[in-house]
Amino acid sequence: MATRHLYLARHGAANAFGELTDIGHQQAGLLGERLAGVPVDAVWHSPLPRAVASAHELARRLPNVPVAEAAELIDHVPYVPSRAETPPSWVGFFDGYDDAEAASGQRLAEALVARFAKVPETTTETTAKGTQRDTHEVLVTHAYPIAWLVRHALDAPPARWLGLNSANTALTVIEYRDGLPPTIVMFNDMSHLPTGLRWTGFPESIRP
Question: Which pLDDT score, from 0 to 100, does residue 206 have?
Answer without folding.
Answer: 74
